[in-house]
TrEMBL record:
Coiled coil: none annotated. Residues 1-78 form the DNA replication/recombination mediator RecO N-terminal domain. Belongs to the RecO family. InterPro entries: ARFGAP/RecO, DNA_rep/recomb_RecO_N, NA-bd_OB-fold, RecO, RecO_C. The keyword Cell inner membrane does not apply. Involved in DNA repair and RecF pathway recombination. Keywords: DNA damage, DNA recombination, DNA repair. The keyword DNA repair applies. NCBIfam families: reco. This is DNA repair protein RecO. It comes from the Bacteria.
Length: 249
């Protein structure tokens, strides 16, 4: 069957001496693997279509649920800036790997596709990297069924919450329930309000937000704990970001 789909390259790997296999995140067909023959050759007209982060329209033949075979494609947005800056490359790679590991094959990916597309566009346009990535993480948690609860107590649903957040239980705790998780993390009132705001925002509507470094540091701790506790992925891109942070320090 012949497909014509817009897709974003979230994984690209060598296959044989001259070919590549790319994994696309698509709006209507979830994740799809496509074989691109000759993509490693110097004069290949398809090489650019296999670059990580590329958003393009792909025309390929696919039988059943196997790999597709690329016929041709047209790039819509190359996102070359994300491949030219090491910091941007690291965080964009993290977004793609996180989605790749969380989204199951053939799972309908409309929400995932649009959030990833918005994430890459936000990174390319110079929006705050950390806020963009934390917002993307929140969207991934929501889509995966682990939406954090910040406006009411995650345990008893009371509206009154403290600044104690339990990644293990999945959200903020009220005064009566904060004893349920001795490992709960205390954050400032400003960080809690920002989390309450971000959990409601669609990435496609993210504007320019100015956030204090102390708030970013608290958010980083909270979101890392949520991702480790709720999803438990061991991501190469996350380890690379950790190494970059150590180098910056």
């Amino acid at each position: 069957m012949l497909y014509r789909l817009e897709g974003i390259v979230i994984r690209s790997m060598d296959y044989g001496e001259s070919n590549k296999i790319i994994t696309l995140c698509t709006e209507s067909h979830g994740k799809i693997g496509v074989l691109v023959k000759g993509a490693k050759k110097l004069k290949s007209r398809h090489a650019a279509l296999t670059q990580l982060f590329t958003d393009a329209e792909y025309l390929f033949y696919r039988q059943g649920t196997g790999l597709g075979n690329l016929n041709q494609g047209e790039i819509l947005e190359s996102h070359h800036l994300l491949r030219e800056d090491l910091n941007l490359t690291a965080y964009a790679s993290y977004a793609c790997e996180l989605l790749d590991r969380t989204l199951q094959d053939e799972e309908v990916g409309s929400f995932w596709f649009h959030q990833l597309k918005a994430c890459l566009e936000a990174l390319s346009s110079g929006k705050d990297i950390q806020i963009t990535i934390h917002l993307f993480e929140l969207k991934v948690l929501q889509a995966a069924g682990y939406a954090p609860v910040f406006e009411s107590c995650v345990s008893c649903s009371r509206d009154e919450v403290t600044e104690m957040i339990s990644p293990r239980l999945g959200g903020a705790l009220c005064p009566r329930c904060k004893h349920l998780d001795p490992a709960a993390i205390r954050v400032s009132a400003g960080t809690l309000k920002l989390l309450q705001l971000l959990v409601k925002i669609d990435l496609r509507r993210l504007g320019n937000i100015s956030v204090k470094d102390t708030t970013k540091a608290e958010m980083k701790t909270i979101m890392r704990a949520f991702m480790d506790m709720q999803l438990g992925h061991n991501l190469k891109s996350q380890r690379f970001i950790d190494q970059l942070d150590q180098f910056k320090a």
